[in-house]
Amino acid sequence: MRRNRALPLAALLLCTPALTGTAPAVATSQSVPAGPLRILLTNDDGYNAPGIRTAFQRLTAAGHDVTIVAPLTNQSGTGTKMLSGPTVTVKHPEPKVWAVDGTPGDSVAFGLSEVFEDQAPDLVVSGTNFGPNIAGLATHSGTVGGAVAALEYGVPAIALSTGGFAAPDPVSTINAMRPTVDFTVKLIDQLQSRAKSGRLLPKGVGLNVNHPVVGADGTGTAEGVSTTFQDPQTVLEPDFTDSGDGTWKVDVRFAPRPAAKGGDVEAVSADRISISPMSANWNTGPVDFAGTAALLTGLRP
User: What is the pTM of this model?
Assistant: First the structure.
């Protein structure tokens, strides 16, 4: 495998901050193995972060064949950004670990194209992230972006995050990563046992899983599991102050609003695990599509 992979000019010309499908198409098997899965594990905190290492250890202990293909450095907040340069540096510091000097999307693209070039993985797991990816945070999350990249190439994906609806406490959040991944092992087991259609998940559908931090030290057990939607609130509010020299000071404050009923914020705030089904595109539902189409009726070039 090449350690520095040059991307074709055509791919670079097509790149946008949202994924454009420039990585090679991935052919995935429709049947799910009855035994251990081959898992590509990525994240946005970096290949050596506590969350991804906990996930690697627990998923491997559960019998799965896990390979880390993750960013070399912290890429939090990069969303779906990928393919931002003509080359990418890739390191292979230890067996089953690849570190890509790029975004989670770059890591997944490299993993599917090179590390798993002979046979696509059965599942991509992105995380577990340090802190929650709920409400507006999920839209810009590199953790979620890594899962979206996998979905675009036809591979089932789970985005995994650990944190409550507040600024993460380092000790309790890291402690809560263990129950987060323990739950993920159970989740994967159930998906395998119920994959009657031959797929872990419906085609094009991924899961955004957020596990709360329960108890003062983070080792508590969640109150339950809720199937949720992404709460529409933005959570973070930016404020810009003019420095008078052409630069602006940027401050961000945490500004939560009442949780939407049935949303991810409501679930995590109640110490429940939130699982939000997601797709890899930004299409609206049929009702919103029809309503918008009516507004556009009669337009002419």
Answer: 0.88
